[in-house]
Amino acid sequence: EVQLQESGPGLVKPSQSLSLTCSVTGYSITSNYWGWIRKFPGNKMEWIGHISYSGSTSYNPSLKSRISITRDTSKNQFFLQLNSVTTEDTATYYCARWRFGVPGVMDAWGQGASVTVSS
Amino acid sequence: DVQMTQSPSYLAASPGESVSISCKASKSISNYLAWYQQKPGEAYKLLIYSGSTLQSGTPSRFSGSGSGTDFTLTIRSLEPEDFGLYYCQQYYEKPLTFGSGTKLEIK
After folding, report:
1. pLDDT computed for residue B72 by the predictor
2. Cα(A43)–Cα(B104) distance, rounded to whole angstroms?
């Protein structure tokens, strides 16, 4: 059974970078697609981007200038870096796997990592 | 971007009742719609994709319908464990977008 677990600092200062790790067990990240999604206070959700089995990436245009999704296949982990954060980036960040054969549908999720941007 | 309008934002019902949640897209998305459930402290669960296809493990009391711009998630014979937040999501085009969520409370 695939399991995903987000990790990273819970508090980031404005203008700094937010870095999160998604550790995957039970499934290789060299298969399928892997993404990041966030939920803001108030429950609005936003797709951030994803990385494919081959390492190619796709980002939400609203964030494209500030984000980078990378991976370490030897550790079966993928990463999110969000630069120049503001208080509006305060959210719970989730990593997820796309359902095989149905691009864009996420069938396995981590439990989320809460990130607060504050000085 | 495709805007997803979900309603109601809050719903309370008793066990055994049936409830429906609506999701409307700002343009036709064919049947490229998924439904998710989230419970506090738990990971999101995919319930339905392709508008009406139940994900493996989703109880049969859940059903999805619709195509184009109007979609509905129906839960028949509510069980106490069905409480939580429900979201629709379109995957017709990027950026993937979500509805605003429906909080379902079991009376």
Report:
1. 98
2. 14
Please tell me which of the candidates B50, B89, B100 has its beta carbon nearest to residue A43: B100
Q: How far is A110 from chain B (nearest CA, A)?
A: 6
* Tokens matching residue A74: 């030897």
Q: Give yes or no for residue A47 having a pLDDT over 90.
A: yes
Q: Is the CB of residue B71 less than 8 Å from the CB of residue B87?
A: no
Q: Which residues of B touch A109 (CB under 8 A)?
A: 43-45
Q: Which residues contact A74 (CB under 8 A, 6 or more apart)?
A: none
Residue B41 has pLDDT above 90, yes or no: no
Q: What is the mean pLDDT of residues B42-51?
A: 96
Which A residues 78-117 touch B at CB under 8 Å?
94, 96, 99, 102-112
pLDDT tens for each residue of A78-105: 999 999 999 999 999 999 999 988 889 9
Q: Output the DSSP codes for B22-41.
A: EEEESS--TT-EEEEEE-TT
Residue A111, min C-alpha distance to chain B (Å): 5
Q: Please report residues of A whose CB lies closer than 8 A to that of B21.
A: none
The two three-digit tokens of residue A40, written as one number: 């803001």
Instruction: Provide CB contacts within 8 A for B21, sequence distance 6+.
Output: B6, B7, B8, B11, B72, B73, B74, B86, B88, B102, B104
């298969």: which residue's tokens? A31
Pull the structure tokens for residue A84: 């120049």
